[in-house]
Amino acid sequence: MKRNRPVYDLVIRNGTVVTADEAAQPPFKAHIGIRGEKIAAVSEQALEGKTVIDAEGKYVFPGVIDAHVHMALPVSGTISSDDFYTGTVAAAFGGVTTIIDYTTPDVNQNLLESVRERLKVARDAVIDYSFHAVILGWPEGRAEEIAEAIRQGISSFKLFMAYGRSRRKSDDGVLYQAFQAIGKEGGIAEVHAENDDIIEFYQQEFRREGKLAPKYHALARPDFSEGEAVARALYLAKEADAPLYLVHLSSAKAIDALVKSRRDGVEVLGETCPQYLVLTDEVYQTEDAHYFVISPPLRKAADRKRLWAGLAAGEFSVIATDHCPFMRSQKDPKRDNFLELPNGMPGVETLLPLIYSEGVVKKRITLQQMVQYLATNPAKIFGLFPEKGTIEVGSDADLVILDPRRRKRLCRKMLHMNVDFSPYEGMVINGYPEITIARGRIIVDEAGFHGQRGAGRFLKRHKPLREQST
What we know:
Structural class: alpha/beta
CATH architecture of the largest domain: Alpha-Beta Barrel
Largest sheet: 9 strands, mixed
CATH topology of the largest domain: TIM Barrel
Strand content: 15-25%
Distance between the termini: 52 Å
CATH class of the largest domain: Alpha Beta
Radius of gyration: 22 Å
Number of domains: 2
Number of strands: 19
Shape: globular
């Protein structure tokens, strides 16, 4: 008797499936069956589905996880221009199916209280999300708060070595105590590594001399201020016997310090961002320089080359965006005083296309490395694997289909981020995401956006997996 084939809710046929496992599983042609919110089959045999997508000649990747974004972030007297609705809609158009944002606590505020407050702000998200808990201050009981946060699904914690003026900076004693407490509970500490004293010295000097144009922002945050802070954070992490995740590394000095410490036995993971891989400090000589004021600042072409080499060699662990957009009207009034400019640029929507076009197409990294940096590693590091970050039976059906033949010229008008400036204006992208699927539902295709406000779920995360690639 002939047995009926199972019928899936959604089938992707004939796509080239790419996972992060380069050695065991090179890209392969397959059919993916989705039932409900989960991947139910990955097969070389044709599958039947109520809805069928023909992905012939296209790549199928795990949905991208942007592990570093700032939606609706209060900063410098304003708020970043993407909220959790507009920002996650834009993310979906770029193939991002999960974001990890940050809490925005007051100094010494209880960590769980800051998470609860951020949950209220995030409830309109259209894709899944979580938070890194920001630590400001070290009141009595902070170690217990960290343990409780991990039990409730927040497994990563961010500290700042910069921004002393806004009271976000942690001194070395707090860093050391935090590393110990986080490591003991099986979480992971993140650090924004810049030497605040060096930055303050240069800022005061430039203020006295009336040098407040945007180009002095970069000069006030030299590469050695990042390199020194990275090395110091890693030394403290080694003494605390704790893993460390370094956000938005921008310079050769920073990645060199990371590599040296890793050889010395420190468990360290490094993140870089598309802006540091694509742009250089030459933009600070232009009329639009104030739109590129970010921290750390954009660096030299030699730094950009070193970062790509680090990605090719597996020295980094994650590529994320540090998405923090502002409208021209938010930046223009402060264009003549870099000390008051809100820091940040848009990026969540262009993450995948930029890294595919600039990295894979130009043969700087492989397809599998791209998936590793954009999906699998962040899932493992931040306690979302194997639900996220891979294409396996039982995993969430978070997928992106990219057409390598699709060519686009980036411009503000064709993007969906709530911003009227694109740092990549006019740049030609070779290969672009076409369809985004989040938990089994097509939320973006050629016809536009089909998701729903509030459909995103807050993800309670596991403790990080220690065996992720580095």
